[in-house]
């Protein structure tokens, strides 16, 4: 049974106002902000000798982003990058040139990094991503997305046909078994934005559920139901987001061998090897 070795690092931080995250903010605290890390994950497929990234964090030259994105940076996001993904990987013995695949959970700035710094990587996006964001800047001067996120000859986008029926991963009924060995299952999970994808990576002791931006706070795993505190200001489709979170919660509760890894939630030690220890399944 093929397993992946997974390590994690942080590539930048940004800020989100509480009013975008919770629907019960008051005028007194609506503009207060929380700082969020941008985690990314290095996956090593030993049998195929592949270096893989799940997300790539924030690029260090944030000034390269389009004017429309700069406006959001100045208004509230205020990103800063003490160490970007290529630097963090190199510091831990992984050359950016060695990365074979980058799976972007979605195309937002804090997940895509700078594809040019990974010249040999195939960049993989979820179904519907390009139809939603392209043409990017500068072809479309109003776009918040860089056209360079989709390098010619290196960009792969999943299609609905790539998702096949699976067993043992209820409540999802379909997934893309990308490497054909069950080590990395990609699941279509829109809601946050078209093309948003989550993954189930098989590791020592169980599975990591790489949730991207399914939600931005641990509290959202309990507050997603109608009438709860969760706000949907960060998501394109509230109902689909709610459904995605409910499936994640159901999956986590049904098993004892799952560790949930969201892009902006929790803390990790530097280059921590992410495993699932016996009896350490997610409890919600």
Automatic annotation (TrEMBL):
Cite the entry's keywords alphabetically.
Hydrolase, Metal-binding, Zinc
Question: What PANTHER family is this protein classified in?
Answer: 102 KBASES UNSTABLE REGION: FROM 1 TO 119443 (PTHR42978:SF2), QUORUM-QUENCHING LACTONASE YTNP-RELATED-RELATED (PTHR42978)
Its required cofactor(s), as named, are: Zn(2+)
The record's comment on protein family reads:
Belongs to the metallo-beta-lactamase superfamily.
Domain Metallo-beta-lactamase positions: 37-264
SMART domains for the chain: Lactamase_B
Q: What is this protein called?
A: Metallo-beta-lactamase domain-containing protein
Keyword Metal-binding part of the UniProt annotation: yes
What are this entry's molecular-function GO terms?
hydrolase activity; metal ion binding
**Pfam short name (any one):** Lactamase_B
Organism of origin: Tuber aestivum
